[in-house]
Amino acid sequence: MGLPEIFINFQTAAVSAITRSARGVLAVALTDATEGGAVEAVYKSLAEVPQEKFTAENYRLLELAFLTAPSKVCVLRVGEDAELIYQALERLCFDWLAAPGLENATVISFIKMLRANGRGVKAVVANATAPDCEGIVNLCVSDLVLEDGAIDAKDYTARVAGLLAALPLTRSATYVSLPEVVGCAALDDPDGDVDAGKLIIVSGRDGYRLGRAVNSLTTLTPDKAGPFQKIKIVEGIDLIRTDIAKAFESGYVGKVLNDYDNKLLLVTAINAYLKGLEGDVLDKTADNRCFVSLSGQRSYLESRGTDTSDMKDADILRANTGSQVFLEANLTFCDAMEDLSLVIAM
Prior knowledge:
Elements: E1 25-30, E2 40-43, H1 56-65, E3 72-77, H2 83-91, E4 96-98, H3 104-116, E5 122-126, E6 136-139, E7 145-146, E8 149-150, H4 153-166, E9 181-183, H5 190-195, E10 201-204, E11 207-210, H6 231-251, H7 260-275, E12 289-292, H8 294-303, H9 313-318, E13 327-330
Helix pairs in contact: 1-4
């Protein structure tokens, strides 16, 4: 039978999505053979990081990771067997990954695999070739120079991933200032780069900043429409999926009989959670609600030989579905302001 599973599917037709992000945990995989350095360590602030246990280059990278104060940073050192790092990452709870010590292609495949298995993890890679995934942010920049000198784009992913992990609930990463950046190569077609799923760095009135906060998703489908290209929207989807799954696993799996009344109790709990997001991150004028899925119930019954053509909807909703719970949700989210059209009449 396998473990109990919960499938929360977000349909995105005409939906603009944004919600709070988890106050993120950042994982950083780096190559560092400094004697005495722990293979795996967790730090809540830069003050906890033992500078003498890292190379100067890697300590600089961790300084960047803590610039916007993620809740904690999990540091993993890449040894001869990189597979051990991926095994550790599968075990760790983290939200964002920066992996200067690992190959882009392997990181991308790993994140895609975890997301396919229901984990809302994301990674920032640098100058990758068309990752095409909502969980991969592709930082595309060259000739990057900080106040303390040049830096490779792959190392700078620690800064961007830390920033995304710690971003406040009320804004997107679009036009976030990067005060430590003093130079980078100009782009020939920044709009085209954004359309190609690249997170870029642009110069503005007050220095350098991130461009439009997009991930690398470029192949759109009915289930993954335009909103899924926004980092902040995917952050919200992952948050809701994770929060509800955790509540279900801790409070319902194996503990509650799967009858219609208890399904309604679960729906009520989920709706109370969604209500708490309204007026801040969810659109309070919309009908944000979860409900028992008529189509899910019907498909279950049909797959087990029950002819539902003459059944009333109410009877289908009340039907026994074994250990499986079928729910749907309609949500309308508020995105951050990013584009302005101002018409001035004279």
